[in-house]
Amino acid sequence: MFQVRKNRAGLRPLQQAAIAALFSCAFPALAQAPEPATPGSASSVTLDRVVAVVNRQVILESDLEDEMQLSVLDPTTNGNAKDTKQQAIERLISRALIQQQIQQENIPGAEPTPAEVAVRLKDIRTELPACIRADCASDAGWNEFLAHHELSAARVDKYLRTRLEILGFIELRFRQGIRITPEDIETYYRDTLLAQYPSGQTPPPLQQVSSRIEEILLQQRVNSLFETWLSNLRSQGQIQILDPTLERASADDGTSKE
What is the pTM of this model? Predict the structure, then answer.
């Protein structure tokens, strides 16, 4: 789910990671029963259906639709394919489990700053493939992109804050205590980095790239620890998918738990 990506200058920090997962909206709201319709009333009320429950936290059909709509901001989709309900429900379940842990552990510093949100927004507008094609770097192109995908600046801001909050939690939760030795760096340089350079092209010296290699190895270990931790949360949590079509699709992936 969580993977490290690189930009043209090399490795990006964990906060810039592209997570197939990524995360869009904050906690789903609880479904509320409508007021009974008065006799002769011409108006009707549409109920927001509960599609899943994660440790007593509900996921609504509107959350699912919102997640699918915001998937255009996920760099892994490249803006070319519409997100499926099955993909969206799996991300929503994972996110609910992670957010519950953020509340329980109350790790300081998980709340992103306005400056961090602004940096991530700039990254999306200038680096997201779908945004590059739409010229989102300009205000006119960005506004047209938002209108085309029926998004608002407020929804994008909420998407970024939730994503950064989770990424910050992961870094604080799993990165502390990891130690990368000089031997680890040298092995990666010799066995992995040098192999990527074609014959006749001179690779950079180890001293020049050692800090980037150290960051890569740190992120690999963080990702490994996180994946194991999330898998345990899923196996121990009470997860119910109430939509039969979503439940069958999740069971096919081996991720559903009654």
Answer: 0.71
